[in-house]
């Protein structure tokens, strides 16, 4: 399924299409400055495990001797305590340096281990497999994905940051991603057009449902530290509820591609193979195919969300102070449930909508035999 390849491809697209990341930023206080630089662990000493005060949770700590590899402090040798991610000798990481202008103190901490080499390697393996087993259709799929990422990073995100409505921005960019991505991947033909129209109609209907549910359920959009920091960094100028809606809509696109293209291709092949069948009969047979597709993809969609929300599920299971219903009602859980159900609703609606559109658009292909230029869709 196309959506299963999103993560490695996304890493590659971000690396090659996004502007260079600046590893220096001003802290929230004008009297503090935070910079980031790469560093390498030269020596690890004083490793120990202690209990966090006031809890029964153990915490590991160590003393690191490191060499700064770039930036203004390149070549400097530093020694500091680390109680974050435990590192080993030879590990490369990003060093966070906080300087206080008030008392001229310097605080060094581990920001993150260096992972870009792993991400690049994984992305290269992904591209190699696409070229070997996907051929030209796989390359066109990568081009489509790159175009989608460009639209998100150069159109959707800047428009939201500049104060445009996240709801309208998400709907507009989602529609562009559908049109551009579909025609790049599957070519300009009636089958692709049927799938595009089906996806656009599904996005509109699902968008209205998502907008209604987000407001009726009183979801604020503040479900993570990132959303809180974003609100402070933008001085509250972004509609966080609208941003939540936008995230739901963008997340729906990957699964829509699969179901809509699959249904359009099924209708095309039924028309080509069955010269005796009416539009109604083709529709009924294609819906039969779609029902099996729905059963598989709804399960896939739900399990994917469950996998992403494992920490939340563990929190729910391990909680002894509150009941399950109280936890499910919590916005953190309620938001994920809304994502799953809205995505599943969109998935289900895409089948009849795309099938009926394709039944009318592709009727002219009836009895013309197997298509030599059909959509390159593989389940």
Strand-and-helix sequence, N→C?
A: HEEEEEEHHHHHHHHH
Main structural class: alpha+beta
Between the first and last Cα atoms, what is the distance in angstroms?
A: 6 Å
The CATH architecture of the largest domain comes to Up-down Bundle
> Which topology of the largest domain does CATH recognise?
Multidrug efflux transporter AcrB transmembrane fold
- Please count the helical segments: 10
What composes the largest sheet? 6 strands, antiparallel
* Residues in helices, as a percent range: 55-70%
Q: Tell me, what is the CATH class of the largest domain? A: Mainly Alpha
Runs in which pLDDT lies below 50 for 5 or more consecutive residues are 1-29, 371-379
Task: Please indicate the percent range of residues in DSSP E strands (runs of 2 or more).
Answer: 15-25%
Average pLDDT, to the nearest integer?
A: 81
What would you call the shape? elongated
Task: Explain what you see.
The structure is a single chain. The radius of gyration is 25 Å and the shape is elongated. It has 10 helices and 6 strands, in the order αββββββααααααααα. A hairpin with a 6-residue loop joins strand 2 and strand 3 (58-68). Helix 1 (6-17) packs across helix 2 (116-161) and helix 3 (166-186) runs parallel beside helix 6 (240-273). Residues 1-29 and 371-379 have low confidence and may be disordered. Strands 1, 2, 3, 4, 5 and 6 form a 6-stranded antiparallel sheet that branches. The protein is an alpha+beta fold. The chain folds into 2 domains: 31-114, OB fold (Dihydrolipoamide Acetyltransferase, E2P) (Beta Barrel), CATH 2.40.50; 135-365, Multidrug efflux transporter AcrB transmembrane fold (Up-down Bundle), CATH 1.20.1640. It starts with 5 loop residues before the first helix and ends in an 18-residue tail after the last helix. Helices cover 59% and strands 15% of the residues. The longest helix is centred in the middle third of the chain and has 46 residues, at 116-161.
